[in-house]
From TrEMBL:
Originating species: Pseudodesulfovibrio cashew
InterPro entries associated with the record: Homeodomain-like_sf (IPR009057), HTH-type_Tx_Regulator (IPR050624), HTH_TetR (IPR001647), Tet_transcr_reg_TetR-rel_C_sf (IPR036271), Tscrpt_reg_YbiH_C (IPR015292)
Pfam families: CecR_C (PF09209), TetR_N (PF00440)
All copies of domain Transcription regulator YbiH C-terminal, residue ranges: 83-205
Cited PANTHER family: ACREF/ENVCD OPERON REPRESSOR-RELATED (PTHR43479), ACREF_ENVCD OPERON REPRESSOR-RELATED (PTHR43479:SF11)
Protein's UniProt keywords contain ATP-binding: no
Protein name: DUF1956 domain-containing protein
Keyword S-adenosyl-L-methionine: no
Single GO term (MF): DNA binding
Amino acid sequence: MGLEATTTRDKLFLAGISVFAQYGYAGARVREICKRADSSNMNAINYYFGGKEKLYQAILELMFAELGNRMRLLGSSENNKTPEERLCDLVRSYCAMLFAGGEVGSEILAIFNNEMAQPSEFLNELIDKHMVGQNEAILDLVGELIGKDAPRWLLQDSAVSVFSQIIYYSSTWVVYRRVHPDHPGMEAYHQHLAEHVCRFSLAGLREMKHAFEANALIAPNWNPRRTLCKRNE
């Protein structure tokens, strides 16, 4: 994400990423964040962010905004690339964002995984702001590959099948690296993974297109709808 600590605020932000990644939101302490930011002023977080809660929210906002922006820019039909090229651009960008960020990238990934396991009070707002529109854009892209009149459940299952290949590595890496101790690590491996996911996914989507056109698919017992409003959770 290209984060650099050039000001006190930046140093606190990066220190917050480090501490939240290590201890989680509940276990993070303001004193430790200030210590890692080389700040002796315990009120610095209140001054720059409005408190620990707002600092954590700002970090989550950066994560979700970055993901949403990449998805919108690369997946849009306005960039004059084929649907296949746009899907692969998304996959490559997603892999790079998750795995090519060095130490800070690994820490942001840890925060993301923690947030998925123990959602904060900010998650619904972030999903409404960044993820709902992104989800619709991805489904539109998958629809270009399978068929514009494909049912929504097929588009959703297909989109999840593409990106879950990447999320598997991010969410199970602690176990995976112990099962495969000779693995080179995701920072070195992410480009290979991206190309594999592209080829595997495009082949799978072609098969789903053929099955849909041949009326060979069995519909599930639910009818997902387009998400237009906020959830009341």
